[in-house]
């Protein structure tokens, strides 16, 4: 990773990822990152004089979120809108920007309504799954284990 330069030539406190570094951290190919950039899903935060794309720390979280959204069946255009909304309201380092205004958000009210509807649909599905999993866990505990079971360790 490289340290970015601020406009005044001072090193910024943020460390930026190259396309290959970002891909490696997210567990995808470099080509996937480039493809998402071409589609407008994951624009670089900076481009060097030589044309190298650099991504800030928040880009890794956004890339992982896009991968998760895709796995949940969210269409690319909605995933792109969700990323655009989060980029408009968060800094390059991922901190929430309290100074954002509606004018900072490059989405129409209709696009925001679609995002909201999709999130409600996903949350409802998660609630149903959580309820079903809890019932199944209670049934397994009662029928087979007779007590507490340690959860499996899951890696990122």
Automatic annotation (TrEMBL):
Matching CDD domains, A to Z? HTH_MerR-like
Question: Keyword DNA-binding on this protein?
Answer: yes
Annotated PROSITE patterns: HTH_MERR_2
SUPFAM superfamilies according to UniProt: Putative DNA-binding domain
Kindly provide the name given to this protein in its UniProt entry: Transcriptional regulator, MerR family
What organism does this protein naturally occur in?
Answer: Deinococcus hopiensis KR-140
In terms of superkingdom, the source organism counts as: Bacteria
* Residues in HTH merR-type domain copies: 16-85
Q: What is the lineage of its organism?
A: Bacteria, Thermotogati, Deinococcota, Deinococci, Deinococcales
């Amino acid at each position: 990773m490289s340290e970015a330069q601020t406009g005044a030539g001072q090193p910024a406190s943020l460390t930026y990822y190259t396309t290959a570094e970002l891909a490696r951290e997210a567990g995808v190919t470099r080509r996937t990152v480039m493809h998402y950039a071409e589609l407008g899903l994951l624009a670089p935060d900076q481009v060097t004089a030589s044309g190298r794309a650099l991504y800030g720390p928040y880009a890794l979280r956004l890339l992982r979120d896009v991968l998760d959204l895709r796995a949940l069946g969210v269409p690319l255009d909605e995933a792109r809108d969700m990323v655009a909304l989060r980029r408009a309201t968060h800094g390059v380092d991922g901190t929430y920007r309290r100074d954002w205004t509606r004018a900072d958000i490059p989405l129409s009210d209709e696009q925001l309504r679609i995002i909201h509807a999709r999130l409600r649909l996903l949350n409802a599905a998660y609630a149903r799954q959580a309820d079903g999993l809890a019932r199944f866990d209670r049934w397994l505990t009662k029928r087979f284990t007779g007590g507490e079971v340690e959860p499996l360790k899951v890696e990122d």
